[in-house]
From TrEMBL:
Enzyme class: isomerase
Enzyme nomenclature, EC number: 5.2.1.8
Residues of the signal peptide: 1-32
Domain of life: Bacteria
Domain annotation PPIase cyclophilin-type: ranges: 204-342
Classification via Pfam families: Pro_isomerase (PF00160)
Taxonomic lineage: Bacteria, Pseudomonadati, Planctomycetota, Planctomycetia, Planctomycetales
GO function terms (MF aspect): peptidyl-prolyl cis-trans isomerase activity
GO biological process: protein folding
Protein name: peptidylprolyl isomerase
Keyword annotations of the record: Isomerase, Rotamase, Signal
Family of the protein in this entry: Belongs to the cyclophilin-type PPIase family.
Length: 368
């Protein structure tokens, strides 16, 4: 990942940190319980110092000549390396220590829960939120992140109960209001979804594997509810269309989007605009159309009947997309890979590993 000094935000290093995959780092030395707060303050001080240096270099970059710009870019690359090798490992070590600690101070628990949630690590976000509320029962962050994490993990009944506590305390955050509203209905949707999965377990649904730069993702395709979207995916995969395509749009706590052939070139400005040269009709109004849950494979579009090759994989349930995007599969292995994807990560190879014994023909419309 290349670090850029083009003006974007004042929290570039923090954003970069959240984008770094921390899997595979060596196990840290255990922290003493009383030392966790000191470790957190040290990490924050280092983040602040690095961030201030980034802002300084950004300011210089705007007025620099070409020679100086190259120097600044080199300094930025070194800063980013330092950030990865020092701050990231320190943060990961503190997160691991916080997981092992039976109790946490309010500040460490807030930090740990917030960072876990921001990295789509909902299981740890839930546990850190519980530790936070054990220490500070009225903490606003804990009262919100506990049910939000449970909603992401599809524990909808628990989420509903804990969102009610946040609402009763008058601290429900606006970004989670839609989750709180959807939780009761999603408990019903989830029961229906589980019944459908059980019913279809022996129906030989097609499967596709994406071999990405972060690991393998195995998808089960919903041929019963979205046969044309499935035919489209199988046809494109078997043609090699997705090989080398990058994930061009990734939004934490939402989804990772890919499937645009334009992402293969060196021009990021055209990412998100490409497709296979045709469009297919939407199937989100088909009988039994599936809802958006964690790990859903859904068709990206710019309106009804405009889907092509682009798709997205969800980090958590997305109620606002139901009835607007065709759900045509789900992640059955590799959700942790989906959670770790960043912009620029690549599908190195896509393969149909199983399908039904009939021809898959795509029905195209006139919108392509």
């Amino acid at each position: 990942m290349r670090f850029s000094f083009q003006p974007r935000s004042r929290r570039l290093l923090t954003a970069a940190l959240l984008a770094v995959c921390v899997a595979g780092l060596p196990a840290p030395t255990a922290f003493a319980q009383g030392n966790l707060d000191a470790q957190l303050e040290a990490i924050r001080a280092r983040e602040t110092a690095l961030d201030e240096k980034v802002v300084e270099l950004q300011t210089q970059y705007r007025d620099a000549d070409e020679a100086r710009k190259k120097q600044i870019e080199a300094e930025g690359e070194q800063l980013f390396k330092d950030f990865q090798t020092n701050v990231v490992q320190q943060r990961n070590a503190l997160m691991t220590a916080a997981q092992a600690a039976p109790q946490l101070s309010e500040s460490v628990a807030v930090w740990a829960a917030t960072n876990a949630f921001g990295e789509n690590d909902y299981a740890n976000a839930e546990q850190f939120s519980k530790k936070l509320l054990a220490t500070a029962p009225q903490n606003r962050i804990g009262l919100n992140l506990l049910p939000a994490s449970q909603f992401a993990l599809q524990k909808f009944t628990e989420a509903q109960q804990n969102f009610a506590k946040a609402e009763a305390a008058g601290v429900l955050l606006p970004q989670f209001a839609s989750f709180a509203e959807a939780a009761p209905e999603y408990a019903q949707f989830w029961a229906q979804e589980q019944a459908t999965r059980q019913k279809q377990a022996s129906m030989n649904l097609p499967r596709v594997v994406f071999k990405t730069t972060k690991g393998d993702v195995t998808l089960e395709l919903f041929e019963e509810e979205a046969p044309n979207a499935v035919a489209n995916m199988i046809t494109l995969v078997e043609s090699g269309f997705y090989d080398g395509v990058k994930f061009h749009r990734v939004i934490p706590n939402f989804m990772a989007q890919g499937g645009d052939p334009n992402s293969k070139n060196d021009d990021p400005t055209d990412d998100g605009r490409g497709g296979p040269g045709y469009a297919i009709d939407s199937e989100f109004n088909n009988p039994g159309a599936r809802k958006h849950f964690r790990g859903t494979l859904s068709a990206a579009n710019s309106g009804p009947n405009t889907a092509g090759s682009q798709f997205f994989l969800t980090h958590l349930p997305t109620p606002h997309l139901n009835g607007k995007h065709t759900v045509y599969g789900r992640v059955i292995e590799g959700q942790e890979v989906v959670d770790s994807l960043q912009i620029g990560d690549e599908i190195q190879n896509a393969e149909v590993v199983s399908k039904r014994n009939h021809q898959y023909t795509v029905k195209k419309n006139s919108n392509g």
